[in-house]
Structures are given as structure tokens and as C-alpha cells.
Amino acid sequence: MKTRLYPSLSVAQFQERLFKDGGYMTERESPSAPPVFATLRYHQIVLRSVWQGARLARRGAYDHQAWAVSSASILMAVEALGGRIMIDGLEPLAALDGPFVVAANHMSALETHALACILLPFSKVTFVVKRSLLSYPLFGCILRSLHPIALSRSDPRADLKTLLTEGVRRLSEGTSLILFPQAGRRAVFDPATFNSIAAKLAGRAGVPVVPLALKTDFLTRGFPLPDFGRVHPRRDVHFLFGHPIQAQSRERQAHRETVTFIAEHLRGVGAPVVTLDKASAKP
Question: Could you tell me the pTM of the whole model?
Fold first, then answer.
């Protein structure tokens, strides 16, 4: 696939637009591909991108530029199959003079592939991930080259210590972190499952937390393989960023503001959200 977004943006031009304009929107309506064709084509593109990335990673050549290109290929796949992409709220990130913690809901595998291209114009970045992902065929090789913070998900106390220690160190070195503070991917956003670890880490490190509302049900969860779900070309893809929230000495309030932003903006784009009156975010 060509490294261009519709109609004629290179990856560098796309990232420049994100930095200058604070967002992006697919510039045309295109016919939706038949669902079966769209699903097969999407996963073909993803697998090819992962294969090419793994080859570079094995040679020690999978740098941020290569990551941005492979990440952009996923956004290009969405548009090529008739989907529309809407990215908004990036202006405040351009004004920050240091790293930050992104706290996002987690709806599908799409965001894990696509977020790097969006965030790299503003900061070096990496993920907080499950340690088991590092052993995945091909993708694990790529992930290891990005030096993520890997957690066991089996020992919460040890994971919290690792995240706070390693997270503060990475942030002090200028690398921003992406966290999905939920128990796995969920089609419905439930504030009660969205823990406060992002706000705690941001508060400990003295950096802002950036809320991110993701609507990525363009790709649904697969069965029996979760990553190989069905593609729905008529469902728009939204990346909605909130203003950076200062968390130092006000972690609980920062967490509440993060959850409120995500819930309100997901409702605004038609994504299902558990009513806040019936579920409270974990402190």
C-alpha cells in the first residue's frame, strides 16, 4: 500500500496537518466495500504491515519513522475500505513542552496499530502493555523494539510498582505513555472498569494526563481470535482528545475529569456508555 492518505497526503504531510490544525477528517464520502471483502482486505493489510515491521525490527531498524509509516497504513486501510476518520483536539498537545500520559478507553485492536502515527508528531511515545504480547509471533518482535512497559496482569501489586517506577523514569526521559486503564477491550464504556492508574502515574511524575475517547468499532472483536474481527465500513472512526489535565496533588479529580470527558464524548458520537449515575469510576 502506498504511504499516502486520501487523496494525496504523505505520512509526513498528514502528521504536519495534525500538528498545525489539531485534527483531521476524511475529505470525501466513498462507497462502502462489501463487508466480507472489507474484512479480508483489512486483515491482509494489517498482516502485511506487521510482517514488514517485524523484518525491520529484527534488523534493529524499526525506528519511530518506520513505526509512523506502518501505523499510517492502518488509517489508510480504513479510508480505502470506505471508512471515515475523525481526529480532533490535538491543539493543546502542540503547546506542551514535555511528555504526557494518554488515558484512553479500549474498543478494538485498531487503536493499538493507529495511535503512533497520530501522537509521534507531538512526543516520543510508547505503550503500557500485557507482558504476554511481547511473545506474539511477528507483532511481539515489533513491540519489543518499541521498549514498552510490560505488566503481568497477574500480580496487581507488583504491576503497580513496576508501572510507577518505570513510568516515572520514561516520562522523566521525555517519552510519553499510552495507557488503556480497562480490563481488556470493550464495546461499551463502563466507568466502573476504568481504573485511576493513569492519573496516579501522571501525578507521581508531575506531567499532565490527556483523556482520549476512542470509537473504533469499525473493527469488532473476533472469535475465536480477538484480533481478527469483522470490519464495518459504515462506522466512523473517532479519536477525540481532551485538554491536558494536571494531576499532581489532585489525582482523584484528574481521574474523574478523564472519565467524564471520555463518557460524554463517546455519547456524542453514538457509542454506548454505562450511565454514570449507575456506575462510579474506581478511585
Answer: 0.91
